[in-house]
Amino acid sequence: MARYQVILAYDGSGFTGSQRQANSRTVQGEFEKALRNLGWSGRSVIMAGRTDTGVHATGQVAAFDFEWAHTVDKLLKALNADLPPDLAIKSLTPAPADFHPRFDAISRMYCYRLFCEPIRDPLRERYTWRVWPPVDGNALKQNAGIFLGTHDFAAFGSPTTPKGTTVRTVTKTEWRKMPDGEWQFEVRADAFLYRMVRRLVFVQVSLAQGKSSVEEVQHALQKQGKLLAGLAPSHGLTLTEVNYGSF
After folding, report:
1. Catalytic residue among 52, 86, 152, 190, which?
2. What is the rounded CA–CA span in Å between residue 92 and residue 39?
3. pLDDT tens for residues 52-91?
4. Which one of 3.30.420.10, 3.30.450.20, 3.30.70.660, 1.10.8.60 gives the CATH number of domain 107-243?
5. Least buried of 63, 130, 143, 218, by fewest C-beta within 10 Å?
């Protein structure tokens, strides 16, 4: 019995999140179905983390144990041939027997995409949040650094376990404007609270639209005040990387 690590990419539009749920189409459910078609009899694959309904991924990580008599390349091709069009395995490699995608992760990175236009753009809006009134780009860039470092992010998400800590360490926050006018936000942290990235984006957009102040955000990080309620839509968010350093 060998353990394998896979990197998954998926369009989250047609999934009720990544984690298996009864009577719902999920990333984990579709992946396990493809494995079972190859003779896998395991109870569950292990995922690096949970993504919500509509959230995409280019770097989700999973692991599973499997007796496979052929090459790793043949396993990769066999699984991809059986997966639906909105889910694919980007890479498949042998892993140490004790490798755990969630607990061994050093950091995770997400990308959020938005653009500012007054009129709907149905094709573009499948993967990008249309924001109007427009944001102040300089404010986006300048205010992103507020979240760097170790803070209690209780105002920005829910703990991943009952009674779990809401303290997280953020090591990267960067907004970039693309040639087509799209804004992309990259954020890296040791771990994230549930819906934390969508909340961070919503608050930054409210700052860049003049609906909130930097002082309010700073006070919220110190648990001394509340912020405007809301989340950025899930369809603008992509999990791009889970980092493990080296085995």
Report:
1. 52
2. 17
3. 999 999 999 999 999 999 999 999 999 999 999 999 999 9
4. 3.30.70.660
5. 218
